[in-house]
Amino acid sequence: MAIRCTFIKALRRINQIPTLNFKKYLITMARYLSTFLILILLCSHSFGQVPDNQDSLPKFKMVDKSAIPKGGYQKFYKYVAKKIKYPKKARKQKLQGKVYVQFVIQEDGSVNQNSVQIIKKAETEAFQGLIKTNELLEDEQIEREVIETIKGMPKWSPAELNNEYVEQRIILPLTFAL
Q1: What are phi and psi of 93, to 5 degrees?
Q2: What is the reported pTM?
Q3: Predicted confidence (pLDDT) per residue in 122-134, tens digit
Q4: Bridge partner list, 118
Q5: Which CA distances in Å does 33 have to 37, 39, 118, 156, 175?
Q6: Which residue of 11, 103, 142, 154 has the smallest Cβ count within 10 Å?
């Protein structure tokens, strides 16, 4: 009983001390942490690479500085959200999930138009568990919208390797939710 009363008194005292809004602080920290984790994921070996020209197979190696959208990823995702139209048929069918789009940013920061592709469920094995197949959304209309949006996006700041601009393959998730 005495412990309970002491605990209640301590809580009352704590409530009298002016503090930060803890819930707001946690939400802000969660946002920063999630952004940081997404950037780490995007810069990881499987998600940001430069072609290795040693043989004819499309191998990739790491870069010193990864290509990034001008204005940052937040501005890029705002652009994508503004440009992509959720197809009516997909809305009616209540299709939701992630579409992973793969493309190459060239030395001048532009998108290689021939490199824009959607990663299909059958291709996810190569990504060693980084892409969850149960989250993938495969719909022809949505995929066309994504490809057209990526092909039309503004230039990026190109990747660098040994202080030279190089091509870099980028793989990004785009989430479709109703």
Answers
A1: -80, 0
A2: 0.64
A3: 676 666 666 766 6
A4: 101
A5: 6, 10, 27, 24, 19
A6: 11
